[in-house]
Every structure is written in structure tokens, then in C-alpha cells.
Amino acid sequence: MRVVIAEDSVLLREGLVRLLADGGIETVEVVGDGPGLVRAVQEHRPDLALVDVRMPPSHTDEGLRAALEARKQRPGLPILVLSQYVEESYATELVGRGAAAVGYLLKERVADVAEFLAAVRRVAAGGTVIDPEVVVQLLSRRRRDDPLHMLTAREREVLALMAEGRSNAAVASRMTITEGAVEKHISGIFAKFGLEPATEDHRRVLAVLTYLRR
């Protein structure tokens, strides 16, 4: 796998390069600003772009904007965004632009190397990864009449794990329940969100987008 990193913190980006290398992932270029990211993606055509949300000059959303521009120029480019804090609007915009091959993680998740590398590979393979803390904040702030309020505690837990990109088997293992039970919870989520029968993966993504957009 070949990766481009866009991160203005020298310390963090060097750490990311080393972590990726230890996981057998090649970093083809490291840049410190948005224009550099767009150029590097065009030049190297990487398998994934690992991007900091806040970059120079204003340190607001330059990284996210550059990532979206890079994906516009190269449709389907897998993007994994890292953020210091939970910024729901950024997570919503990123996932809302295209549900496949995108991820949004807090930088603190990098400390769990195995989970971080798993997220990188999942996004590169076309999956979606949303930081659990983002899920928690989104779920906790919804109005009483929102479909999310209709979910049971178990369904919410399943939904949070789905947002992390977990398979039914992985959800079952994490929650210590059977895959059959997981399937029942997911069916309940689909029903309460009003998601009509379609391909399973498509509905899983729509379930995540439902609460990100509300």
C-alpha cells in the first residue's frame, strides 16, 4: 500500500511514517499544506491520503478542503482524516460527500497502533471508519423525535461499531453476542431508520449517514 501524508506537525508526521512503515505500508510523500496534498495525489496516485483537518495558513479546515479537492480530481481516492478534536460538521461533510473509502479519526487513536493500522487498511479497501467519540457525541445530542431516539441501547452500540467499519462477526465478538443477534439488531436499526431492503453494505452506510446528517 502507498500513502501520502498531509500533516504540518513535523513530530506527528514522522511518527506516522514510522508506524506505517512498521505495518508494511509505504509513505510516498509527506506534505505540510493543502496544495501540497493535491499535487502529491496527482503525482503519486497513492492508495490512500492520510490528512490532518487543520492545516496552514488559517488552521481551520484547509486539510479537509484539500482532501475533497484531491478526491474530486481523483474520484474514489481513499481518505482518512485525523483531527485533534471532535468536529461533527467536518465528519458529516466528509462522509456525506461519498460514503465509500473515507474515515474520520481523532489523533489520539494513533496511539493504538493495531487499531490505527486496521483503520488505514479498512479505508484503503473501500470501507468507512468513524471515530467512536464522534458517534457518541452525535448520538447524545439528538432531539427526542429523532429516529436515533427510537433505538435501544443495544442497537446504538451496534450502530457505533458499524460506524467503525466492523463486520457482523466483529460486532458479535466485541459485544459477546451471536451473529444472529447482531443481524436482528441491524434489522431493527434499518426498520427504525426507514431504510428499504437493498444490498447489505449499502444499507449499513446509509444507517451511518442517517445520524451524521441529522
TrEMBL record:
It comes from the Bacteria. GO terms for biological process: phosphorelay signal transduction system; regulation of DNA-templated transcription. Pfam families: GerE (PF00196), Response_reg (PF00072). GO terms for molecular function: DNA binding. Residues 144-214 form the HTH luxR-type domain. The modification 4-aspartylphosphate is found at D52. Keywords: DNA-binding, Phosphoprotein, Transcription, Transcription regulation. InterPro entries: CheY-like_superfamily, NreC/VraR/RcsB-like_REC, Sig_transdc_resp-reg_C-effctor, Sig_transdc_resp-reg_receiver, Tscrpt_reg_LuxR_C, WalR-like. Residues 2-122 form the Response regulatory domain. This is DNA-binding response regulator.
